Amino acid sequence: MMSERSVWMLTGDFYPGTGGGERQAQNLSRELIKNGWLVNVLTRRHGFKHLRGVAEDEIVDTIPVHRLYARGGGRVAALLYVAGGLWFLMRRRRRRIYHAHGEGAQAWLAIIARYLLGGRAIIKLRSGAQAYATAHLGGVRRRLFVAQLRLADQVIVVNREVEGYVLTLGILQWILRRSVPFRRRKRLLCARGSICRPTRVLLSM
User: Would you say 54 and 45 are in contact if contact means Cβ atoms under 8 Å apart?
Assistant: First the structure.
């Protein structure tokens, strides 16, 4: 059985990166650990926001962090992160909640791990609606983005603007629900009913 209190935080960048997404992942991980969760962060050693020479494995703010080799840019780095991350997770063979901070490579890693290893996949969309609309103008990219949302067990959006954009993509048949503020999002993970099929879209204020 899957431990309901075990999470892999999947993010392309993490500390010493200092962006909003990195801080949110760090804050959420720290709070979950305080509440008795088993949390690990799986990120890259060669992210754009990383300094050179960062450790492959270390403890950051009580959080175990594992950094994968993913040198390069664009699709090369994305493929290396997904392939390396899947191999890393398969060697551990423990069903977890896979929480992807952002779409793209980390979201695909969460989804593939969820279906191959068991567990649950959560995708947090952390940009504005305009950024997503611009990035997914092409037909293929748009279809891949929609596929990620539909294959995930849960989608978290950061504002009503993104919520509206997600609904325009044809996710209307899935359940829509607004969540509690970010500082209490850990309660959503703890609630058994909030991590289930079909996909739920959550608004995190």
Answer: yes
CB-side exposure of 62: number of CA atoms within 13 Å? 13
Sheet holding 154-157, edge to edge: 57-60, 63-68, 38-44, 6-10, 96-101, 119-125, 154-157, 200-203, 175-178
The pair of structure tokens assigned to 152 is 């995930």
Cα distances from 102 to residues 2, 22, 65, 108, in angstroms, run: 23, 10, 18, 10
pLDDT at 59 over 50: yes
pLDDT at 109 over 60: yes
Fold of 6-203: Rossmann fold (3.40.50)
Buried b (16+ CB within 10 A) or exposed e, 49-79: ebeeebeeeeeeeebebbbbebeeeeeebbe
Question: How far is Cα 184 from Cα 163, in angstroms, rounded to an integer?
Answer: 19
Contact of 103 with 148, CB cutoff 8 Å: yes
CA distance 98 to 34: 19
Note the pLDDT tens digit of each residue in 44-57: 887 555 566 788 89
Residue 2, pLDDT > 70, answer no
